[in-house]
Amino acid sequence: MKLIQYFSETTLKDIGKVGGKNASLGEMIQKLQSKGIDVPDGFATTSEAYWLFLDENKLRVRLDKILSALDTTSFDNLPDVGMQARQLLLDAKLPDTLNDALREGYDFLLEKYGQNISFAVRSSATAEDLPTASFAGQQESYLNVRGFSNLLVACQHCFASLFTDRAIKYRVDNGFDHMKVALSVGVQLMIRSDLATSGVMFSIDPDTGFENVVHIAACWGLGENIVQGTVNPDEFFVFKPSLIAGKKSIVSRSLGSKKWTMVYADDGSAKTFGRSVLNRETSKTKKEQWTLTDAEIETLARWAVVIEEHYGKPMDIEWAKDGENGKLFIVQARPETVQSRRRGQKFVEYKLKEKGKELCKGIGLGSRIVAGKARLLRSPSEADKLQEGEILVTGRTNPDWDPILKKAAAIITDQGGRTSHAAIVARELGAVAVVGAGNATAAIRDGQLVTVSAAGEEAGRVYEGKLDWMETEIDLASIAKTNTKVMLILGDPDQAFRLAMLPNDGVGLMRMEFIITNAIGIHPMALRHFEKITDPAQQECIEQITHHFPDKEEFFVQKLAEATATIAAAFFPKDVIVRMSDFKSNEYASLLGGKQFEPTEENPMIGFRGASRYYHPMYREGFEMECRAMKIVREDMGLHNVKLMIPFCRTVEEGKKVIAIMESCGLRRGKNGLEIYVMVEIPSNALLAQEFARHFDGFSIGSNDLTQLTLGADRDSELLQNIFNPFDSAVMQLIEMTLNKAQRSGTKTGLCGQAPSDYPEFARFLVEQGIGSISFNPDALLKGIENILQAEQKLQIA
């Protein structure tokens, strides 16, 4: 009878003996250490050891009797049954032969790593006749366990944790026989991440299943704070193709509040067993620091790619950094089980028809909208208060909440990030969640009717009352392919991975100004010339926003580059056409620090905007900052699918000036496939299309501005709505002229706007004229595709 098995002699073939968690650690030590991945060594008790423990104490019959009394309909007596079962195991005695085996493993690790070490003691349940069964998160783990006597106590508590309330209910819900599931205890060197940082990473995006990124979450101290949802961590997305190509690959980063740091509480003595770690409030300095360097982020991401390739499936991985030697380690790896099961499902688009009073907001998960009664619970002991279909509101959740979360239509927490327990369970259950809302338990009343929206943006929002919304179901497999390219209009990088799943040929218009407004919020020239800001309040605000960037220009450049790169990565290798900033002067002035750098204009719509700004001394430096960001995306990150577009270019000469500035910034037309497009939104663009075609690779028709300037009708004026008509013959002639001239010069063409989805006849006109692509807002995409298909069919018949 083999009672322990060293990780160095364990592989995935041993899941039936030591559970998935321990088998995976052995697999990585044997197969992946040669590829540079560091895994702390250890050993595991086998399923035979667990059965020996039960048999020597004659516990099988008594356990079976306790568990058979469980009410599997209401589960009202679950707490009592669970407590009896756990106490039965805790009152038993570990067999001498098991003690001896544990001593052998303990001595081995002391000899390998030294006397002054502690252990992570983790439970790994397994069903020998069902070796692929997963029982992740159902049992207990104990950290910072020191000394042999404490190790014995921890192992016995792990055995007992096979009968936590949540584990018992999980087995009942999934049809497992309690007496056929064993418990393996993993004993692993404890990495001193209490002195450094640790966290969780997924080899795909855990929210959407997008496969081309690695998602990393990090906090100070032990990583339990992330899993438990106690902190809002730093988060990073790394683009795999850029990483593999040796390019700059971090496409997104967000600084978490990281309020708590979990550290060792003592020396792990038996006196304080089970509470040998504690949470301390993180210092202000560390809250404002990144937990990882760029090099460390990319190292972890490379490891995630190697692990994913080895296992042949998306992976959920825990990592830790040792504060004593500065090394990174992988401490767990398991298959990702949520998004990988959902592939091929129908895509449902949710959209609020109205907006109500916002109560709170956080990270939104689930991409859906639900409404119901809010139920504020302080702990799982109040489970009976939550009724089926109600919305759970609490500070944070942990695995003890699992038995009741299935009843919740949505989960709202004050604390936690997208890899917290609440977020993970919400994905598994297909529930809507808003995590890390901060003040949810204070802002929402118990029993209050609320609407929870996690659709349309990264932020999840909770509104007062029941709001009206619409749902559009999309069977992606049934949508036919058009000959005309169908592209998206997009500005929000937080939606990119999800929207990339829709049928599309790329992004025909990425609005840079959306990113500047939402991700940056500060006027570029206020960052370039911060010394010129005279308002003390604005100075302080800008300092606060940019404090973790030594150079304020770099704040703008990095934020813009990474937001653009996120969208480019989502649609890679399809084209993403980025329109350089197209604010009007009044819109620029509304940015933080903007008033000092903007003129006051009577008619900003036809004033200091677009190309005219880019070479003017009042904004040229700001445009050069935009160009630096785009150069990073294309050259440093290798996202050559990014094309650039110049808006509101009044004259050919103006276009030449802008192209010259771009080239001086390293954005030379033709280099690494760089294409530069121009918007056709002024009659002069259409009239001189052949001349513009000599300097630009493509035309994108902006039908709203073109209609406005052709008819001299303000598109925002209610009084002129009967005049503002995209079907006016003058407008149609200019579009037709542009497309005809473009075909003769071999220039690419596209149109961005609502009209082709609203009006089938307009789509037909564009198709008949041979337009290359049409770009739609996401909510208009399906109708637009339908109109294009009808137009193409009619053209074939004709």
What can you tell me about this protein's structure?
This protein has 798 residues and is an alpha/beta fold. The chain folds into 4 domains: 4-190, Dna Ligase, domain 1 (2-Layer Sandwich); 194-341, ATP-grasp fold, B domain (D-amino Acid Aminotransferase, Chain A, domain 1); 354-474, 3-Layer(bba) Sandwich (Glucose Oxidase, domain 1); 479-797, Phosphoenolpyruvate-binding domains (TIM Barrel), CATH 3.20.20. Helices cover 37% and strands 21% of the residues. The protein contains 31 helices and 30 strands. It has an 8-stranded parallel beta barrel with strand order 23-24-25-26-27-28-29-30, surrounded by 7 helices. A 7-stranded mixed barrel has the order 15-19-18-17-16-20-21. β18 (410-413), α14 and β19 form a beta-alpha-beta unit. α3 packs antiparallel against α4 (78-90), α4 (78-90) runs antiparallel to α6 (148-160) and α30 (760-768) packs across α31. The longest helix has 20 residues, at 552-571.
